[in-house]
Amino acid sequence: MTMLPDFKLETYLAKWEFSARYHMTASDMESMSVAELLALATPEDRAAFDALRLGYIETMGTPPLRSAIAGTYAGLQPEDVLAFAGAEEGIFCAMHALLDKDSHAVIVTPNYQSSETLPLSICATTGVALRERENWALDVDELHVALKPYTKLVLINFPHNPTGKVIDRASFDAVVTLCRERGITLFSDEVYRGLERRPELQLPQAADVYERGISLNVMSKAYGLPGLRVGWIACRDRALLSRMERIKHYLSICNAGPSEHLAVIALKARARIVARNLALIERNLGDVNAFFAEFGELFDWQVPDGGCIGFPRYKGKDGVESFCKRLAEEIGVVLLPSSIYQSALTPTPTDRFRIGFGRSYVPEGIAAMRAWLRSNRQAA
């Protein structure tokens, strides 16, 4: 196996995430305790959790979990679902099941690093960058030009990490049409689906609308339950799912039974959980918007279409790397500089940073940043 490069995002967060006062670049929603989640369970599901035996479970995922996941799609069956230990394992298995050295992949950038690095480690890969100056629009014509006769995969991610962009429905449909005309698999990272600012922004799930569509999702982001380590791929190509399953045999083999049972409880209560998370985002965005408005000389900010992260520009003379470093070291506020999203395929911005607004402590973190910037403004 080809040695993969250092995972810059995970290395960066390993240094700061658990030592900082405010993890203000968190990419997931506010989590909950086991007791809080169990309080959402039906009496039957709570009793089943208490009686759960700690043995191995099915590699594909338990029948109740696959059934609950299938219920979040328009026309899929439990047999169209494969569970993973988080979304990362799903990306790994899918790329290795789909691609070989004679393949070609097209990746929308910027992106979560493994979504670019893994295809690049296997086959020829082309990047299509979202257009920063057009509010991160996707140029479908540019994507069309990037396709080759042997392209096997197009990978998209909306709501997007790190910008929060959701492309319009016409652009999404055009991507599906391009893939369908050529028999190309469309891999759609949908981990932030459900956190759109307005319901009409929400895109269809790829597995629902395209026979070669792959939908990736996870309990970590929109649901705020990363500690469960439960993700999944939904896909109508059951032979492909079987190939992914055989790759998973070399990785986690199976998920943790308690985690899958808790994920079932959360999925059954998803309307309440997502509503809670949307309300928290709305409250936090009030503080975030006010902060960026106060320091307009330092930041360019536009409210993202969806998700719980954004990608503002930093205009300070010291540069975004220095800005993020000083915040972390001097007041324990962690942001993610855009160098973490550097792509080997396309130019990427060098003056932006990722900020998260899905945690309960966001107002406190914003207050700490405001006080620090005011102090530095006075000192100057």
Give a topology summary:
Elements: H1 8-16, E1 22-23, H2 34-38, H3 43-50, H4 63-70, E2 81-84, H5 86-98, E3 104-109, H6 113-122, E4 124-129, H7 140-146, E5 151-157, H8 169-182, E6 185-189, H9 206-209, E7 213-218, E8 231-235, H10 238-248, H11 257-268, H12 270-294, E9 299-300, E10 309-310, E11 313-314, H13 320-331, E12 333-334, E13 336-337, E14 353-356, H14 362-379
Parallel strand pairs: 1-12, 3-4, 3-5, 5-6, 6-7
Antiparallel strand pairs: 2-8, 7-8, 9-11, 10-14, 13-14
Helix pairs in contact: 4-11, 5-6, 5-10, 12-14
- Range of helix content: 40-55%
- Rg calculated over all Cα atoms: 21 Å
Helix/strand/pairing category? alpha/beta
Task: Average the pLDDT over all residues and give the rounded result.
Answer: 95
How large is the share of residues in beta strands?
A: 5-15%
N→C terminal distance: 53 Å
> What is the ordering of alpha helices and beta strands?
HEHHHEHEHEHEHEHEEHHHEEEHEEEH
Low-confidence stretches: none
Summarize it.
41% of the residues lie in helices and 14% in strands.
